[in-house]
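User: Could you go from structure to sequence for me? I need the amino acid at each position, not a summary. Structure tokens:
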């Protein structure tokens, strides 16, 4: 489908996408871009990329697909730095967890001869870097594409086919709706986990090291606190309105539980927990 794909940010998502595209024969050549040369060398040794460059001005000729896999605050500025080296007809996409602002700014940035299709594969883990990339990461998982009325329909169809052939279940969604949904189901949990782990680290119970007493439940619940801090800093800043709304709702629920415990309302507490139990069973 593409002669030469540039993956900017050869980490878990970008690297896995490159591996999957290679496995399915969707790209002829993959070129990596990033700040860390050690990670890029590892990506080349693993066969994720054919070669790499570290300065935007060194972007090779003949690129017909650019995947932007950087922290979301850097997405548009990096695309702008690539523009002088890109040729008409190049398709640009991303894999960011926030969409509305990026889609808006990319549509303002790009000339009419280039197309942007926002994408967010709902797959991943707390690991990062080229060492974490796996070709099967997206298989069976949802990938949300976020076109607008300005999106080129041929480009949208091409990216739809691209993700489907990689194994993802493609869904089309308004970028603003995407950010509201992900603010609740993805971004809020990360904020909560970061706060919980930091609460643990700042709590003193005599001279006990509380970390030594964390069981499987705490470890399972807080696994995502190992995620890359830079990525989640950007997500929280760019999607702060949606995250702030969901965080406010969560705080109200915490206050409700706190009051029920303070007042000794055991039956109401049990009802809340049972309701959560039922909702959790409904989550696929």
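Assistant: Here is the amino acid at each position, in order:
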């Amino acid at each position: 489908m593409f002669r030469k794909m540039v993956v900017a940010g050869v980490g878990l998502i970008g690297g896995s996408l490159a591996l999957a595209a290679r496995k399915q024969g969707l790209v002829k050549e993959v070129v990596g871009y990033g700040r860390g040369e050690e990670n890029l060398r590892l990506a080349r040794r693993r066969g994720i990329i054919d070669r790499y460059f570290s300065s935007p001005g060194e972007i090779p000729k003949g690129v017909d697909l650019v995947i932007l896999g950087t922290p979301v605050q850097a997405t548009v500025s990096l695309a702008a730095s690539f523009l002088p080296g890109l040729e008409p007809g190049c398709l640009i996409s991303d894999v960011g967890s926030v969409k509305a602002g990026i889609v808006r700014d990319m549509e303002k940035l790009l000339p009419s001869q280039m197309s942007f299709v926002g994408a967010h594969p709902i797959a991943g883990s707390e690991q990062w870097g080229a060492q974490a990339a796996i070709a099967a990461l997206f298989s069976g998982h949802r990938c949300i594409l976020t076109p607008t009325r300005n999106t080129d329909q041929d480009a949208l169809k091409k990216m739809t086919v691209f993700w489907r052939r990689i194994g993802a279940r493609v869904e089309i969604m308004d970028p603003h709706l995407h950010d509201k949904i992900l603010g609740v189901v993805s971004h809020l949990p990360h904020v909560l986990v970061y706060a919980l782990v930091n609460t643990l680290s700042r709590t003193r119970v005599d001279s006990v090291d509380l970390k030594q007493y964390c069981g499987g439940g705490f470890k399972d619940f807080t696994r995502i606190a190992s995620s890359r801090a830079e990525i989640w800093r950007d997500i929280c800043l760019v999607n702060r309105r949606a995250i702030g709304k969901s965080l406010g709702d969560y705080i109200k629920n915490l206050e409700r539980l706190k009051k029920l415990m303070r007042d000794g309302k055991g039956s109401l507490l049990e009802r809340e927990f049972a309701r959560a139990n039922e909702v959790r069973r409904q989550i696929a």
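One structural detail worth keeping in mind: The mean pLDDT is 94.
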